[in-house]
Design brief:
It is a single chain. The chain is an alpha/beta fold and 302 residues long. 49% of the residues lie in helices and 18% in strands. The chain has a single domain, classed as Vaccinia Virus protein VP39 (Rossmann fold, 3-Layer(aba) Sandwich). It has a 7-stranded mixed sheet, with helices on both faces. Helix 6 links the parallel strand 4 and strand 5. Helix 3 crosses helix 4, helix 7 crosses helix 10 and helix 10 packs antiparallel against helix 11. The longest helix is centred in the middle third of the chain and has 25 residues. It starts with 6 loop residues before the first helix and ends with a strand. The structure holds S-adenosylmethionine. The site of S-adenosylmethionine has 20 residues, from helix 1. InterPro entries: Methyltransf_11, SAM-dependent_MTases_sf. Pfam families: Methyltransf_11. GO terms for molecular function: S-adenosylmethionine-dependent methyltransferase activity.
Length: 302
């Protein structure tokens, strides 16, 4: 398969990949709907803003996936009303199912980031997590975020891969792939079927075509300022936690999931949280944003 080269191809691949991944998405990424997940989401928004969380009125999430951010923000009372959009109908269906299970009401609809079906100045907060790097036309998307925000409204994006962090993350991924046979023997787990963790072999093939950007902090800053935002703030998070997380995810993806011992999963989860705490206390705020794996952006519509 040739890499997609037009905006329409990128959107089409994203729809097909995420439709195929939606059913197992929460399990694959360990999305937690209890206090742990809530702390993660609220912590990321707090870190992006660089201050305590205000209470927002209407929010709009871009590429909301299964609802990880909006549903936690709604449940915690950080937003009063949530609209969620995603290019994938499969993701919107999974989001609605999660909302129903949690007893929450959201407006959820299929929409592209670059063409939002809302009137001007509709929202107090526009947000997204791990979505900007999938968008073929970032300038058009940022113009839309600006248009649908009310004056004084806030923009927050988190979980965007940084260019340097992305390159550094290849080291644990390659190392883990090399060590995988030994690790599986130690875990007494059999080798995975191709594509088992993301919707089957066909989806596995699409995976490497869905991510179209990794950012420098300066690029995100430019995009926000060019669209007319001010108070632009770019920060980085997760370094040690990320290397640890990618190593474990790369190892786990090579084995049949049901055969991975629970003790390993506990170790991977607790280790990740411990290193994340270390990143927050010792490294974030001291080292340049660009070397962390994830970039966070906040800005304000004047
Ligand atoms: C990595 S997932 C993140 C989902 C969710 N925000 C989360 O953190 O769990 C990226 C999401 O962006 C959506 N997406 C990709 N391209 C898009 C586009 N052009 N417009 C809107 N959503 C898009 C995908 O369908 C997918 O649900």
């Amino acid at each position: 398969m040739q890499p997609p080269d037009s905006a329409a191809d990128i959107r089409d691949v994203n729809i097909r990949y995420h439709d195929g991944a939606a059913a197992d998405y929460d399990a694959k990424w360990g999305i937690d709907w209890g206090d742990v997940g809530s702390d993660q989401v609220l912590g990321k928004v707090r870190r992006a803003l660089g201050r305590e969380l205000p209470a927002f009125g209407r929010s709009l999430e871009i590429g909301a996936g299964t609802g990880y951010f909006s549903l936690h923000l709604l449940r915690a009372g950080v937003v009063a009303e949530a609209s969620c959009t995603d290019i994938s109908q499969g993701m919107i269906d999974a989001l609605q199912a999660n909302a129903q299970r949690l007893g929450l009401t959201v407006d959820a609809q299929v929409a592209e980031a670059e063409r939002l079906p809302f009137p001007d100045a509709s929202f107090d907060l526009v947000l997204g997590h791990a979505v900007l790097h999938h968008l073929p036309d970032l300038e058009a998307a940022f113009a839309e975020f600006h248009r649908v925000l009310k004056p004084g409204g806030v923009l927050v994006f988190a979980g965007e891969p940084s260019r340097t962090g992305d390159r550094l993350a290849t080291v644990p991924k390659v190392t883990a792939t090399a060590l995988a046979p030994l690790w599986r023997r130690a875990m007494r787990a059999s080798p995975a079927r191709p594509g088992q963790s993301d919707g089957g072999a066909a989806n596995h093939e699409l995976e490497r075509h869905v991510d179209v950007h990794a950012f420098t902090p300066g690029q995100l800053d430019d995009l926000a300022r060019t669209a007319g935002f001010d108070d632009v703030r770019i920060t980085g998070e997760e370094l040690l936690a990320n290397w640890f997380g990618w190593t474990n995810r790369a190892l786990e993806s090579t084995a049949v999931p049901e055969e991975i011992p629970n003790a390993w999963r506990q170790y991977a989860f607790r280790g990740y949280l411990a290193l994340k705490g270390l990143d927050e206390r010792l490294l974030e705020g001291r080292l340049p944003a660009g070397i962390f794996y994830n970039l966070l952006l906040s800005a304000r519509r004047p």
